[in-house]
Write the structure tokens for this entry.
Amino acid sequence: MDWFQADDYELARQVLQRGTATIYLIAFLSTAAQFPALLGEHGLLPAPRFLKTTYARRQPTLFRWHYSDRLLRLVVGFGAAIAASIVAGFPQLGPPWVSMVLFLAIWFAYLSVVNIGQTFYGFGWESLLLESGFTVAFLGSNEVAPPLVVILLIRWMVFRLEFGAGLIKIRGDESWRNLTALYYHHETQPMPNPLSRWAHLAPKWFHRFEVLGSHFAQLIVPFFLFVPQPVASVAAAIVILTQLWLVLTGNFAWLNVLTIVLAFSAISDSVWRTVFSLSPAQAGYNATPIWFVVVVLAASALILVLSYWPARNLLSRHQLMNASFNRWHLVNAYGAFGSMTRQRYEIVIEGTAADSPDDDQVWLPYEFKGKPGDPRRIPRQFAPYHLRLDWLMWFLALGSRESRWFEVLLVRLLEADAKTLKLLRIDPFHGSPPRWVRARVYLYRFATRAQRRELHVWWMREDIGMLVRPVTRRTQDHR
């Protein structure tokens, strides 16, 4: 059964299984820490209320008939434990059905969360993680050789991820066509990291080179993932290097790290051994069971059928970005930065304990963990961890129409809700409720080198005006 086996891809399998499980572990831990405050029984967008809608009742989820914060913690705890065991490599020591069943278990557990996560789970990398978990489930265990068809399907996923992102840029914004997009990106990206300012202050010729490199890596290189070795490994290495640059200069949750993991599907043991003089130990494989061949081919056929819609989307002039074509989040469309933001606006929430909201001297800012606030504070590195509230604050500053959660957030701050306050870096009132809260809009830009030396700030900001005028509990109670 040589046609079925990919004997030269043991390293790829180990990286794909353990790397994907690591991201699942991070996703479950992130959910345990944030979901109750954002979407729990008393969250900003309560899941129990959402589950009463007709749309929600059609979604595959373990919470269809009942949701509670306790049940959520049980599900994500179960998922985290399984993911951790796969990272350690224990299920892979058994027959191939063990790792397959456990991967499908964490896939469905996380699918259950995403399908009730509403706007807080509406990111493309959620679908990417779900698609990855389902596909990687069929790589088998250490007893049998990796199935070649699954290795190729994972490359097809990387192709859609990279080529789709490249097309959406070329089609969507002139700055990608005239090579000026990176004049703005490092400063205006959703959540800068410690190196973003350094990258932004690089000369313009360097930014133009970055854009050319992005086009090459996303529009040309993906085709070479399907050619014979060693070219496919070289193509994968280029994808990995470009993704590492994004890891170094930004905070895109697990998108870049997971892309790096998936790109290993194109790196063969032979090429790895030649370059690094290392190879995963493999004493030999058992014969692949017929039942496993049948299951893998059936799953592969399903993925190929579902590939019609994202393939058609790639060819469409009205290409969708980060779209799912089925409720199971299998075989999705991906892409990012189809339109480039030129200026960075930030919403700063402030509170006061004063009886009157008229004195500007008594307003104190709430500080978020990841998004910019205090101009003196250097941005932190959080990826691959996902700070969902911080990301939604960035979209809100861009004019997002979905803002119900923000109104509830202000109420929770007026109540000094403990779960909500844990999502923030600084509560200026130390757990006590303020009398009033408000939200102001500022225009942020990175400080120049001279401004940094003189003023000791990381950001320069300009007050644009009021987004939400002072509100108090009495105001909210009358709404």
